[in-house]
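Q: A reviewer asked whether we had any structural model of the full assembly, not just the individual parts. We don't, so I'm hoping you can provide one. Inputs are below.
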Amino acid sequence: NEDLPMARKKSLQRFFEKRKERLTALAPY
Amino acid sequence: PLAAAYFNQETLQQRLLTLIEGARETWTYAIFWQSSVDVASGVSLLGWGDGYYKGCEEDKRKQKATNPAAAAEQDHRKRVLRELNSLISGGAGGSSPDETVEEEVTDTEWFFLVSMTQSFVNGSGLPGQAFFADAPNWIAGADRLALAPCERARQARELGLQTMVCVPVGTGVLELGSTDVIHQSLELMNKIRVLFNFNSFEIP
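A: Here is a predicted structure for the entire assembly that you could use as a starting point for your response.
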């Protein structure tokens, strides 16, 4: 975890947040 | 120094988002490749600066892997996603498993994630070529991506992308990708110049 550069870490966090939003929007209910 | 102060992760993310969400065309992602020089070796390097993934129509189609090879590929992608999620959430078991890591990882999502591990040395790859030549590189069409002298472009095509654009801006290269065929647009190039003009003291 400590080896993950901050830029990539923040990008990954955003990617997961956006992915969750997309999946929620696509959910049938 | 002022320009440098504005060039941080937050304003960079905002610029990428503004460009992609405000564009007339449908772009799947935007990545800023940051240039640096390795002091010891003198090697010039373009590495991950930041990225914004918007997604595409593919994300809306719930394709279930129908053959063993595709199913194995999905298993691999989900495993990597779980590990990455664990990394950013502070270790294994740090967060409860949810659909964020258990749902299918689309081809373009995978391409974006793999990009975070890539870098381009001394003018290699499409981003490196654009940076080295200080000239934009706009490739529209799967057949043209297949012919590009760049492994990344060929991988992009294999994963469903049809357009890749690399534009040198400030201290790096802006890369855009789309699953649509998008031809060169002066409007977009001007927008990039305004949004990524790092000599400007104005926050867009």
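A: Points you may want to mention in the reply: The CA atoms of residues 8 and 16 of chain A lie 12 Å apart. The interface with chain B takes residues 1, 4-16, 18-20, 22-23, 26-27 of chain A (CB under 8 Å).
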